[in-house]
Amino acid sequence: MGIVQSPDLVYTSRRPANGHPAWKFSSRVSVRRTPAMTNYKSKRVLITGGLGFIGSNLAIRLVQQGADVTLLDAMIPEYGGNLFNIAPVKDDVRINFSNVCDEFSVNHLVKNQDYIFHLAGQVSHIKSMTNPFDDIDFNIKGTVVLMEACKKYNPVAVVVRSGTRGQYGPAIRLPVSEEAPSNPKGIYEISNLTAEKIMKVYYENFGVKSVLLRLTNIYGPRAQMKTHHYGVANWFLRQAIDNETIKVFGDGSIKRDFLFVDDCVDAMLMCAVNPKAYGEILNVGRDDPTTFLELAKLVVETAGSGRWEFAEFTPERKAQEPGDYLSDITKIKQRVGWSPKTPLDEGLRTSIDYYRKHRHEYWEPLDQTVRIV
Ligand SMILES: NC(=O)c1ccc[n+]([C@@H]2O[C@H](COP(=O)([O-])OP(=O)(O)OC[C@H]3O[C@@H](n4cnc5c(N)ncnc54)[C@H](O)[C@@H]3O)[C@@H](O)[C@H]2O)c1
Q1: For residue range 287-342, what is the model confidence (pLDDT) as tens digits?
Q2: CATH for 3-368, among 3.40.50.720, 1.20.120.1630, 3.30.1490.150, 3.40.50.300?
C-alpha cells in the first residue's frame, strides 16, 4: 500500500457556514490514497449484499484485481441495493437476485468460491426497534444458511463478515478495543453480535474460516441516500448538496470516527487473504475522532452549499444514542497491516463530487421527495 502526497489537494476554507458564526478549518495537505496491494487475480469471490453500498465498492475493486465475482442481492426496498452502483463493472460480474436465507440458492452459490464477503443483512438500527423480524431473519438466519452451506459444500472458503461497532453498545472508555464488553442497545446490534458468534462456532467446530469485522460509520459513494434511517454522514452530504439544513442533535459534541468506504474495502480485502485475521474479531475504523458538529461544518464547507443548525434530540434518538465512539485499530494494524488512508476532507470531497454527478441515480428530484426528517 502506498500514499502519494498531492499538493493540489490543499484544503482551503471557501466561506463561513450560512448564517452562523464564521469558522475555518486550518489548511492541511491531504494525502491521495492508493488501493491496498492485494491480488485477487482469478480468485472466485461471492459477495452477499453485493449491490449495496459497501458490497458494490468491493465488487469494483475485486474486478479491477482480476477476480471472478458473483453478487447475491435481494434488492430489498429501503436498503442500498442499486444496479447503478456496479455500472463500471456491470459486464464483468454475475448477479444472482436471491435472498441470503434461501438455502438452495446459497448452497449452489458458495460452491467453488475462494472468498465470501457476507454483507447482506438488515441495516438500520431504527428499523430494528419497530420491526425486529428482518434482523432475526436476514442477519441471524441468513448467516446460519450461509455457514451451513459452507460447511456442507465449501469448507475451505474464507468468509468475511461486516459487523458493526454498535455491537459494543455505549463505550466504557475510548478508544474501544475488541476486548471491550458487548452491551448492544438494539436488535440490529444484537443480531449482528449473534451472527458473529455463529460464525465463530463454525470456525471453531467445523473449520470454516471467518474474519469478524466490526465496522465504524462508513461514508462515501454508492450508499443509499433515500432515507436518514442509516448512514448519517451520507445523509449530511445529501442535505448539503440539496442546499438544505443539516440538523445537528444536542450540542453536536458526540464523537465518531467516520471512515471512507475505500478504506473499508481495503480492510476487507487485506483481511480475507491474511491467515492472521482468521477467527479474529477486528475493529475497522479511524483512530481520529470527529464530532457531529465538525462533520456538519466540514460537509457544508466542502459542498459550498447547505447550512447546519442545532436541533433537540427526538425522544427516540435520545434513548438510542450510544454516545461517543472511537475505534481502537491497534489489532488490525498489527495483524494485517491495515490502517485508514483517506483524510476526512478528501473523502467528503470525493463523495460530494460523485453524488453531484450521479444524484438522479440515488434520490428523487426535490419536489418528488417525501421529506422525512
Ligand atoms: N455502512 C455502514 O456504515 C456499516 C457499518 C457497520 C456495519 N455495516 C454492515 O455492512 C453490511 C453492508 O452495509 P451497507 O452499508 O453496504 O448496506 P446497504 O443497504 O447499502 O447494502 C446491503 C445490501 O444487502 C442486501 N440485502 C439485505 N438483506 C438481504 C437478504 N436477506 N438477502 C440478500 N440481500 C440482502 C440489500 O438489498 C442491499 O443491497 C450490512 O450488514 C451492515 O449492517 C455497515
Answers
A1: 899 999 999 999 999 999 999 999 998 887 777 788 999 999 999 999 999 999 99
A2: 3.40.50.720
Written as one string, the DSSP assignment of 278-340 is: TT-EEEES-SS-EEHHHHHHHHHHHHT--EEEEEPPPHHHHHH------B--HHHHHHH----
CB distance 100 to ligand 1 below 6 Å = yes
pLDDT, tens digit, 9 for 90 and up, residues 26-38: 333 344 456 677 8
Cα separation, 27 vs 16, whole angstroms? 14
C-beta of 160 in contact with ligand 1 (< 6 A): no
Sign of CA dihedral 255, 31, 348, 169: negative
| Ligand 1 neighbour 76 (Cβ under 6 A) | yes
> The whole model's pTM is what?
0.91
CA of 119 to the centre of ligand 1 (A): 5
